[in-house]
Amino acid sequence: KMATAAGAAAAAGLWSEVNRCGQNGDFARALKSVNKILQINKDDVTALQCKVVCLIQNGNFKEALGVINTHTKVLTSDVIAFEKAYCEYRLNRIESALKTIQSASQQTDKLKELYGQVLYRLERYDDCLAAYRDLIRNSQDEYEEERKTNLSAVVAAQSTWEKVVPEDLGLREATYELCYNSACALIGQGKLNEAMKKLQKAEELCRQSLSEDSDVTEEDIEAELAIIHGQMAYIMQLQGRTEDALQLYNQIIKLKPTDVGLLAVIANNIITINKDQNVFDSKKKVKLTNAEGVEHKLSKKQLQAIEFNKALLAMYTNQADQCRKLSASLQSQSPEHLLPVLIQAAQLCREKQHAKAVGLLQDFADQHPANAAEIKLTMAQLKIAQGSVTKACMILRSIEELQHKPGMVSALVTMYSHEEDIDSAIEVFTQAIQWYQQYQASQTRGANPKSPVHLSLIREAANFKLKHGRKKEAISDLEELWKQNPKDVHTLAQLISAYSLVDPEKAKVLSKHLPSSDTMSLKVDVDALENSHGATYVRKKAGKLTGDNQQKEPGQGEVKKKKKKKKGKLPKNYDPKVTPDPERWLPMRERSYYRGRKKGKKKDQVGKGTQGSTTTGSSELDASRTASSPPTSPRPGSGAAVSATSNVIPPRHQKPAGAPATKKKQQQKKKKGAKGGW
Q1: How far is Cα 184 from Cα 238, in angstroms, rounded to an integer?
Q2: Cα–Cα distance, 423 to 403 (Å, whole number)
Q3: What homologous superfamily does CATH list for 1-106?
Q4: What are the structural domain ranges in the chain?
Q5: pLDDT tens for residues 283-325?
Q6: Which residues are within 8 A (CB) of 556 and not within 5 positions of it... i.e. 6 or more apart?
Q7: What CATH class has 436-513?
């Protein structure tokens, strides 16, 4: 009995210690006291609960969950449901947390709050929105602002990932978190300018709220603003302002924020800006997307986009095996998604395996008919790149849902025309026109009004047939157009032109419907039009024959106005007494007095024999200098030889007798200049 009493007294003291430490927030010391209590009574439910809470407060979620699982008989789901679900949530076991919450017999407010968080992580946004609405409606405490923030985050996620137009919740955007979430919702709707204004307001509110705390430094404020600046940069990127976006992204990375999710998103966006350029930088940035815990911070679509970009980066860096591995993994995760198959096909094309790429795309189109249209467009593009235009046309015509579209019709007609297959081009027009006829008949219950697109196709078909000499085939189209609009003179003229070769009598009958020339004459002042500012041709008016300008008698001469000629510029050393050189317009080599370049004296003295030999008598031994040697043939265009001993010094445009001296001076100047350069 005395031992029992002593134990009870010790337990009471320990409980007092636990209570005091809990109020002070010293959960480490509280845990020590709780462990001592459990040594006295290992199945004490309250002590076990306190131990779990202390472990959670210290961040030891795994150990806390271990305590719960080892004492399931004592710690039943009714007693510890919230703590168990919270530990599972923090350990990223989201599905387990959901089961724990749903299996609890009583749904407390705490469980409902956690339920909303779990649904958000599971991306079940509709259920999450309903849960938070219920919480806001039935709760009145100091956490109302946080619940509204979470509610706005759900709406933003719906707008971004599910493309749902968000409803106006009537939330007063008094905090920067609410402004930020509102901006994200606007980005999802494509309202980028409005979103940027919201983000600027969020930045201003964030600075105001944090600057009120004296303990917060400027670095802390910048770290908190990093996520807002990240969204600003994303908007700039969407608007095409890639340089500004890249600058802001790099500023955020330099801050080294602790949010691995934010860093991963920014790194991914930088990689998308770099594309196939600046690959070294992209390989550095991709490491940020592999940080621990990233998969728990981002949505499934964000993670998927990052994986796609990794595969593309592997392709751009010529890592073919890595690219195939990543794209195959993505395809196994999302078999119906287009991008993994397109990446594989692109990699095969880089390896010059076009046929294999087309086969891969064809297999995917057969397995997933819903996505066949986009795949077949890619196949057609590959066929065109190979020069197989006809095969590309066959692939395009197999896309039934696009056959009647004006863009598809135009593309097919252009390609068939390029291949000079006019019959196939006309067949494309015919099929498209028939589709519109059937569609409109089903929509208007037998009535036959023509839509603008339908009429446009008929007109294009008629013009195409006329252009390629198929006037007989164009007649039915032109008659249909004229029937729809009898006042269309242009169509009537085309119809008459077509009939003139086929049925001239019919052409004459139709020509009666043409308006008369009087009704078609335009009241235009020709003189005023010709004298207008933009006229390129002005008709000269015929002058009246008066006494002054009448034809003059044969002996009378006509006075012509002489044009003033500008005096040509003369050389500076021009001498009027000296006759100009008659050959001054010919190139120097073609002038009669040109004798080629003069060799320097030093060059003649250089010995051409072995070392030590003399050049004496070399001129005597030179056969070319003897009188018996035949003269060299003159250059084309050369005339008689001119004596080089003339004492007359002509101007610059005459014989260049003084040229060598001038050239020598220039060479001396160049040598002097060269000395100064070293």
Answers
A1: 13
A2: 17
A3: Tetratricopeptide repeat domain (1.25.40.10)
A4: 1-106, 436-513
A5: 999 999 999 989 999 999 999 999 999 999 999 998 999 999 9
A6: none
A7: mainly alpha
